[in-house]
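Hey all, quick one. A colleague (J.T.) asked me to put the S-adenosylmethionine job into the tracker so the inputs and the structure tokens live in one place instead of scattered across chat threads. No bug as far as I know, just bookkeeping. Sequence used:
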Amino acid sequence: MMIRDAVEGDLPAIIDIYNAAVATSTATAQLEPVTPAEARDWLKDHSPDRFPLWVLEIDGQIAGYLGCKPFLPRCAYRGTAELSVYVDERFRRRGVAKRLLQHTLARAPLFGINALVGLIFGDNEPSLRLFEQLGFRRWGLFPRIARVEAAERDLIVIGRHCPARTDSQPEVDSDSARSGPFELMQTLIEYRQQPIHGQLEKIRAKYSMLHLDVLLLIYHFAKNCAGHILEIGAFVGGATMAATLGVRASGKSKKVIAIEPGGTLKHSRLGSRDIWRDFQRNLRKQRLSEFVTSIKGQSFDPGILATVQEALGPEQIGLLIVDADGAVKRHLDIYKEKLADAAWVLIDDYFGPQENIKVSATRKDVDNFVASGRLEPLGFYGWGTWVGRWRVKPRIA
Ligand SMILES: C[S@@+](CC[C@H](N)C(=O)[O-])C[C@H]1O[C@@H](n2cnc3c(N)ncnc32)[C@H](O)[C@@H]1O
């Protein structure tokens, strides 16, 4: 299955799919088939950067499509989009609509969409069930508002915030509720008044490529998470130090396990001729060596995995920091068995120039994990770093 932006050449397939739905009168309130001219106008109403129209291809054929459009024209609704999803009858019961919806949920914040609504006939139980499986809730009912042939039908407004909010997601646990995007932003602001802010500012200047707020989040998650901390790509130690200070502040005996193969890096501020040597020296300088289990090697080497497993023992990982080579899927596939449910995950290089290979590879992998429900995004903060949680059981599968 491949999902991509729709282009004009897809219109005949889109029209066929839509008109098949018109003919059954179950999924659309339109009673007459759409004409090619109408469909062309309709394509113009979508824009790839604001209100996308996506098609899902299977073996080169359009199996379904999903479009987002403004919910209402008034300014206050600019963050709300109405979505419609249709599947070719030949591709039913293959998870096409679900994939398109998951794709949309993963990307909605990137389009400035913070709420999605769907308008569904009250008797269209399969669609209502699918949306509800994906965290949508029934936000409104217009009783007997539509007349299709002789029958009056209810219209249900089904909606979901993006990312999900605790009020519309009753299944979210209390830890998540305390750790939503706004609470975390507040926490970051509070840290600005505390000595740790200055301490991490100095650490960042000397040893880290990450944004100061990301180091503060690492400190905060390391302090509060349940489980050990695993870092892939320690470089010269900036994020390792932030995590270690967090663990120290927690007063608990959590381990910080940091993997780094070493090498050299040319960089105007942080260049190193011997990354491993500098990493060790920097930890010593900060008097943090004894709190860090540093492992020299590539994360995906079986010997390194065995060393990490030994260091973890029976415990799980409560915070995972990935800032290495863009091979996010490879890293997660190797270490996911050790990740606790709701473990915090920070992955750098998610945002950045599209043409950057590390960024595009990272984004693709992260988006796929989000779409499958294994990674739960927190929202977008604009540091280039993706922040969210790991789910042992996908919440939206
Ligand atoms: C961008 S740097 C990390 C920066 C660091 N997080 C900081 O706070 O500045 C990426 C590091 O990942 C390391 N790396 C690359 N591939 C790796 C792998 N497979 N396993 C572990 N580390 C890796 C590189 O040697 C490099 O030092």
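Adding what we noticed when we looked at it: Residues 326 and 362 are 5 Å apart (CA to CA). The domain at 174-390 is CATH 3.40.50.150 (Rossmann fold).
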